[in-house]
Amino acid sequence: MKKVFVTLLIGLVILGTIAGGGAKEKAAVSGPSGRLVLYTPDFDEELNMVVDPFQAKYPNIKVELVQAGAGELKTRIRAEAANPQADILAGGVFYNDYVNMPDLWEPYIASNDSDYPESMRNSTGGAITFKTVQLVNLLVNKPLAKELGVEIKSYADLLNPKLKGKIITADPNGSSSAWNQLSTILGVMGGYESAAAWGYVESLIQNLDGVMSGSSSTVYKGVLEGEYVVGLTYEAPCVTYIREGKGDIVEIVYPSEGINAIAGAHGIVKNAKNLENAKLFIEFVASDEMQAAFAASTVRQANLNLPTTNEYLTPIDQIRIEPRDEAYLAKNQKNILERWNFLWAKYN
Questions:
Q1: Alpha helices per DSSP H over the chain
Q2: What is the mean pLDDT of residues 319-334?
Q3: Domain ranges, residue 331
Q4: Percent of the chain's residues with pLDDT above 70
Q5: Are residues 74 and 176 in the same domain?
Q6: How many domains does the chain have?
Q7: Could you give the CA distance from residue 76 to residue 110 in angstroms, rounded to a whole number?
């Protein structure tokens, strides 16, 4: 996805006409109406899975989408704080955004919040509502890996000299998936502040050999299209490839050192102009109906009290999930990114 803002107008307000006395008059609009502006970094399948049924349920609400990277959208929301243009940041919102940008969010707690597991409830004073659980992973181009004679089952395998310049990652400064990869790597390779973990990151940067994308989608698309052997990415779009029958081309690898599971969220923008419609959207995403739809899709639902029903998703108990210190990461994200940027500049 190019780093440009693309506004898509989805849905039309349905107007009926009635005849009477030889003249046609417009029927009254019933139900909620008006606009709802979503800023979103979500990939198209996940986005459509929510917007389309919401639009069907509330046909008189005109949904407008602005798609770009999560970091870019948060910067824009802050710049527009005096005159908000977005009603919701849909996706790309994480716990650290609540900690580091508390003034950007309008408090609201979905009515069924207590139905969620305690770890997934809105514990942020209403600031953000968890919608899905994102796993990070590697995506490997199987024919290219075989041609190179490399096996990729772990983060350590990414340091193979044969892979130099053939690995792609997004920029953790602007991509939520890349930030989640970096923080996961630090956690599972020795600890956020350990010399071993940062030594690994430095070695990985050298093996990347200058390859870094501005968007998450470039990573998984580049691997599928054979531009790169392996990408550091996230689960949902990769599972989509497998479901589409592309498993002969790409393989999902959950690194043997372990990975993190990260709860992704929606946040209503402070002083949103279409606040009531934004609340309706939050209620819809948190509903059992929508959470069950996530559970059957390529993403994992935040309400883990509901069963995951997608046959293409690896059962969570077959994946090594390591603990993640969200409070530490929220407090230290800036420092971690500054250290990454220093190392990146050192070799590029």
A1: 44-57, 70-79, 95-100, 142-148, 176-188, 195-208, 216-224, 235-243, 275-286, 288-295, 326-347
A2: 91
A3: 134-261+320-347
A4: 92
A5: no
A6: 2
A7: 26
